[in-house]
Write a structure and sequence with these properties.
Elements lengths: L1 H18 L14 H15 L3 H13 L32 H14 L6 H15 L19 H5 L10 H10 L4 H8 L6 E3 L4 H5 L7 H8 L11 E3 L11 H7 L6 H4 L9 H9 L1 H15 L21
Antiparallel strand pairs: 1-2
Main location: secreted
Catalytic activity: 2 a phenolic donor + H2O2 = 2 a phenolic radical donor + 2 H2O
GO molecular function, one term: heme binding
């Protein structure tokens, strides 16, 4: 009898474990049109503003690195809860919240109360990548939404600084379960989007040896030594709106815009060989980027009965 009880408990535990796993087919029965509805909404948003593709990929990153991929980044402040949106790395920088809200509204019309905001953020990042020429990878879904936000964590170093050294980046990614190749591949998202002058201006004027002089002079036109901190410059000067491997070619020419980009190549960096590989082999970069995004999407997810499915992404039910 005791053995029978143990077997039953093991079977129940195994069953719960299976149900709690993320899967690309999670909504096949409960909301078969979920992913196509999200895709349509995301494509519409990016067709209006091409830069939004980069913003949505970055939003997924900023969600996952702060207490896991749980849509906590979407919550707005309340009298009893501070918002991650107001954390230094996100304030007046993170974008795309309204696009996720619109996608959520579209999905709610099809399947009320079924699809999480956390999953919508993850799917939106994939759809954004694909729309501008990046890889289409199979997003695992089944996440649930956090009932709290974590501004203190967002402010404490769980989001990489634009001044971060390679060792600091590597240590941070390792704490999240991501290796050096994941770091270099995910950094390639900076083949898209723009950065504010305040994030790279000091590199232009400190006579650094790790930046190409001509590239630096070009950037100075948009970023004067006094003022212009919120002016924008493309992270990839060559093809800023297309997902390709120019980011890595730029690094090899000392044309990485952020210090945290350029540390991936030069002065014998341990990541030099990966940067070189991706510069020569765009298909390998695309494959590794997709794999790293899937891996990142597994960080501290809420599944099963944990968390909730928010009715709206900006507030707890």
């Amino acid at each position: 009898m005791a053995i029978f009880k143990i077997l039953v408990l093991l079977l129940l535990s195994f069953s719960c474990f299976c149900q709690a796993q993320l899967s690309p087919t999670f909504y096949d029965q409960s909301c078969p049109n979920a992913l196509s509805t999200i895709r349509s909404s995301i494509r519409t948003a990016i067709s209006r503003e091409r830069r939004m593709a980069a913003s949505l990929i970055r939003l997924h990153f900023h969600d996952c690195f702060v207490n896991g991929c749980d849509a906590s980044v979407m919550l707005v402040a309340t009298p009893t809860m501070e918002s991650e949106r107001d954390a230094v790395p996100n304030f007046q920088s993170a974008r795309g919240f309204e696009v996720i809200d619109q996608a959520k509204s579209a999905v709610e019309r099809v399947c009320p109360g079924v699809v999480s905001c956390a999953d919508i953020i993850a799917v939106a990042a994939r759809d954004a990548s694909e729309y501008v020429g990046g890889p289409k990878y199979a997003v695992k879904v089944g996440r649930r939404d956090s009932t709290a936000a974590f501004r203190a964590i967002a402010d404490s170093g769980d989001l990489p600084s634009f001044r971060a050294s390679l060792d600091e980046l590597s240590d941070l990614f390792l704490r999240k379960g991501l290796n050096t190749r994941d770091l270099v591949a995910l950094s390639g998202a900076h083949t898209l989007g723009q950065a504010q002058c305040v994030t790279f201006k000091e590199r232009l004027y400190d006579n650094s040896s790790d930046i190409d002089a001509g590239f630096s002079n070009t950037r100075k036109r948009r970023c004067p030594v006094n003022g212009g901190d919120t002016n924008l410059a493309p992270l990839d000067l060559v093809t800023p709106n297309s997902f390709d491997n120019n980011y890595y070619r730029n690094l090899m020419q000392k044309k990485g815009l952020l210090a945290s980009d350029q540390v991936l190549f030069g002065a014998g960096a341990s990541t030099d060989s990966i940067v070189s590989e991706y510069s020569r082999n765009p298909s390998r970069f695309a494959s590794d980027f997709g794999a790293a995004m899937i891996k990142m999407g597994d960080i501290q997810t809420l599944t099963g009965s944990a968390g909730q499915i928010r009715r709206i992404c900006t507030a707890v039910n």
